[in-house]
Design a protein that fits this description.
By secondary structure, the protein is α+β, with helices and mostly antiparallel strands. It contains 5 helices and 9 strands. The radius of gyration is 24 Å and the shape is elongated.
């Protein structure tokens, strides 16, 4: 309950500050994934203004309340990071159907190319199109069971031999 009020108050205060500065603010995500372990909540916001927005820890105020009436300021904003969404790292996990039909059936229009060959080539093409060096790609197969072949990695060179190992 305390966390929900804290998040709501942070959202409201940040919105008010953005409106007062004639900027547009969008809250993209509230991540409570580290709340139980590290007592941390990550708030992802986008601030749009005519000029480059400069927001520092001093511009933000966070208040919390255990009863919704008496609020006190929280002084431990741990980090304020600027990340352009185009530069944010992504993780891709490719899941390949490894059933018999992928080997028995050919691709429509090319009787020499099996469906598994087309799928692995499509994964290679996709991996080669990834331009952000921080992005990761992983690989798994399924038939009657799921099997992870390669955890997400930035090392795209590992993908080729891993794709070749699918049988």
């Amino acid at each position: 309950m305390r966390t929900n009020r804290l998040i709501l108050l942070l959202i409201i205060l940040t919105s008010i500050a953005a409106i007062a500065a004639a900027e547009r603010l969008a809250i993209g995500q509230v991540d409570t994934g580290r709340l139980l372990v590290g007592q941390r909540v990550d708030l992802f916001v986008s601030i749009d203004s005519g000029d480059a927005a400069v927001v520092t820890e001093n511009d933000l105020r966070v208040y919390e309340s255990s009863d919704g009436v008496d609020f006190h300021e929280v002084s431990d904003i741990l980090d304020l990071s600027r990340v352009r969404s185009l530069d944010a790292a992504l993780s891709f996990y490719m899941l390949v159907d490894n059933s018999g039909s992928m080997y028995d059936e050919t691709v429509e229009g090319d009787a020499t190319l099996t469906r598994i060959q087309a799928a692995t080539q499509a994964i290679r093409d996709f991996a080669n199109s990834i331009t952000n060096e921080r992005d990761q790609i992983g690989l798994a197969v399924f038939n009657t069971h799921y099997r992870r072949l390669m955890p997400p990695s930035r090392d795209k060179a590992r993908l080729g031999p891993t794709l070749e190992s699918i049988e």
